[in-house]
Amino acid sequence: MTENISRRSLIKAGALTAASSGLLRVPVFGSPAQPTGKPSPIQLGLASYTFRNFTREQMIGFLKQINVDSLNAKDVKDHLPADEKGEAKALADYAAAGVKLHAAGAIYFRKDEDADIRSKFEYCKRAGIPVIVAGDPTPETLPRVEKFVKEYDIKIAIHNHGPEDPVWPSPLDILKLVKNLDPRIGCCIDVGHTVRAGTDVVQAIHEVGPRLFNVHMKDLANFQSKESQVAVGDGKMPIREIFAALIETKYKGFVDLEYEIHADDPMPGVTASFAYMRGVLAGMGYLGHD
Questions:
Q1: Whole-structure pTM over 0.85, yes or no?
Q2: pLDDT higher than 60, residue 149
């Protein structure tokens, strides 16, 4: 345990040094000794819920500070409004800032009604978003959702929500209910909720395999406590092993930081989290990707 903590401290120190010197993407520490020289296959992004207390304009400024241009947008504050006019303005602002939207959510599918489901697919179609992160759809709605997945060719990534969720606590519970549906219906693995559900997150990545469309990254000091979230690198989450599993399974989606604590002042934790994740990837021998 002491060795693991020391290794994390070394990685974090190296990453923060690199961040302060503008060399965040250079593999200067960790193993292997010989860097691959290849761009990282892991794409880092951000869940806009992280900045739920801040406007779109403020969030775009924060994204520039942390050198992130890939966003999983949510209809919170004015990040990606559901109304067409507001959405169009948001899309124009993101385009002007060079911010790309790769997912939206969590979006909820609790009504087994065509009109309600279609409105959510239209919302993502207008934005050119290829993945909907779905929060707690009922199993009864899945056949109807599947119909729209086929019509719009937009993927559904069902978000697991830990032991409090009676239907979707773990990615493996999602897999059981979607494995016979269209292959564009799969999972968003929230690593924090996954470990709290008692599931090995690395094993879950391998089992979900090609049905993994989004990852929400966070760290916990205690795998039994939702309230123990900390900056990535300060907890017990096996970040390097998670990245290795994603690379082994040829995951093509994004790893989105979802930093849910310190909502009024998230930037210190967000900055440290990206520094640590980039440092881990550098230690694995990869150049920057995100």
A1: yes
A2: yes
